[in-house]
Description:
Layout lengths: L1 E12 L2 E12 L3 E5 L6 H8 L7 E6 L2 E2 L5 H7 L3 E4 L11 H6 L8 H9 L3 H13 L15 H14 L4 E5 L7 H18 L2 E5 L3 H7 L2 E6 L2 E7 L5 H7 L17 H7 L4 E3 L6 E3 L11
Bound molecules: adenosine-5'-triphosphate (ATP).
Keywords: ATP-binding, Cell membrane, Membrane, Nucleotide-binding, Translocase, Transport
Organism: Roseateles terrae
Function: Part of the ABC transporter complex HmuTUV involved in hemin import. Responsible for energy coupling to the transport system.
Amino acid sequence: xxxxxxxxxxxxxxxxxxxxxxxxxxxxxxxxxxxxxxxxxxxxxxxxxxxxxxxxxxxxxxxxxxxxxxxxxxxxxxxxxxxxxxxxxxxxxxxxxxxxxxxxxxxxxxxxxxxxxxxxxxxxxxxxxxxxxxxxxxxxxxxxxxxxxxxxxxxxxxxxxxxxxxxxxxxxxxxxxxxxxxxxxxxxxxxxxxxxxxxxxxxxxxxxxxxxxxxxxxxxxxxxxxxxxxxxxxxxxxxxxxxxxxxxxxxxxxxxxxxxxxxxxxxxxxxxxxxxxxxxxxxxxxxxxxxxxxx
Length: 295
Ligand SMILES: Nc1ncnc2c1ncn2[C@@H]1O[C@H](COP(=O)(O)OP(=O)(O)OP(=O)(O)O)[C@@H](O)[C@H]1O
């Protein structure tokens, strides 16, 4: 039984189509990396999964409930099933880090408990916030003000918020964009380990294709608002990655994630090849090349 099921879900913003009709099933406990070039629609899709963007057509079932067929208040309750960590977390600048982290416990809490959490967190809550921050190497910033943090530290506060939340579905939008490579990998490992330990479902958009292929069992790739690939990480070969990012080589993995011969890879590409007008580079045309690619 899937936790999330999308049936021909389409997203538009005015005249612009952000996501072409897309069908997807996500089971409880899965860990999925969402990849694709800039502008492919990763954030839009995550916002749709978070019930923050209303689809223009299609259905989204979360926890067996047709989210957009529910009343406003029922959908609001359903949102307690998930927590979205946005790429640029809108943390109140004057807030203490501990309180920002504990905001992850507000969904579903009573008004009285929410006020206590925000204005007078208990010792136990402070301990939980500290544990989450310490796991992300920010234990010493518990009582700092948010506006004293760097961009990368703020991103980790948003991850710590997930760690203290009760939501079974974690949606994370490019959590590593402001982190150095080592810290990025460590932070992602913390998140994945915590999700695994507690049976959470994790969907995480990433520009670090190598990390996505190495650390996530399932990859969903978007290009131009379309599903380009959905399948196991080991099925996402270098040729498919090249086709996914064709025209956006700045985002290609710097080194191949698996031992291989680059010439060999080029020979493996069955689909048509094209010459990039700007660079003159011979590259695979953006045509899916594996049977797991959704067209
Ligand atoms: N509200 C909107 N109105 C019009 N266009 C939008 C809107 N939101 C997003 N877009 C466009 O939709 C496309 C997909 O945007 P989205 O942010 O989902 O991509 P992304 O894959 O997350 O990109 P990035 O990796 O750069 O964050 C982009 O071309 C963007 O400009």
